Amino acid sequence: MSVDADETVETGGETDVETMAAELGAAIADLPVYREFEAAKAAVEADETVQERISEFEQLREEFQLARQTGQADEAALEELRDAQERLHSMPKMRRYLEAQDDLEARLETLNEAISDSLAVDFGGEAGGCCRDE
Question: Residue 37, Cβ neighbours under 10 Å: how many?
C-alpha cells in the first residue's frame, strides 16, 4: 500500500465521521426536547417584559461584581440581586425556558455518555481541551 492510499483511507474515514457528526447534530435538532428549548428561547427573546427583567438582573449582577471587587459589596446588595433573580425566574416564560434548558442539558449529557463510553475521554467535556490539571 502506498502513502497516497493510506491518506485516502484516513480522509475517507474522517469524512464518514464528519458526516455522521452532522447527522447526529440534525437528529438532535429534531428531538422534541431540543424543539421545546428553541421554542422557549424564542418566547423569552420575543417578550419585552422578560427582556427588561433580564437587563435589570444583568445590571444588578454587574454592579454587585464591581462592588465585590472593590470591597464594597454588602448583604443588602446581594439580597437585591437574589430578589431580581427570583423575580426573573418566577416569570412563566423564563421558568419554561430554564426547565427546557435543564431538560436539554440532561439529554445532551446522556448522549455524551453514550459517545464517551467507547472513548478514553469525556467526549463533551474534554475532547476539545488541550490542557488539564491533574
Answer: 21
DSSP 102: H
CB 60 within 8 A of CB 81: yes
Place of cell 488539564: 132
Backbone angles phi, psi at 100, to 5 degrees: -65, -40
At what angle are helices 92-116 and 3-29 packed, to 10 degrees? 150
**Cα(116)–Cα(7) distance, integer angstroms:** 26
Q: How far is CA 72 from CA 37, 116, 124, in A?
A: 38, 45, 39
- pLDDT tens digits along 70-95: 999 999 999 999 999 999 999 999 99
Q: Name the grid cell of 21.
A: 457528526
Q: How many whole angstroms separate alpha carbon 41 and alpha carbon 59?
A: 21
For residues 50 and 65, what is the distance between their CA atoms, to the nearest angstrom?
A: 22
Please give the average per-residue pLDDT across 25-49, as a whole number: 97
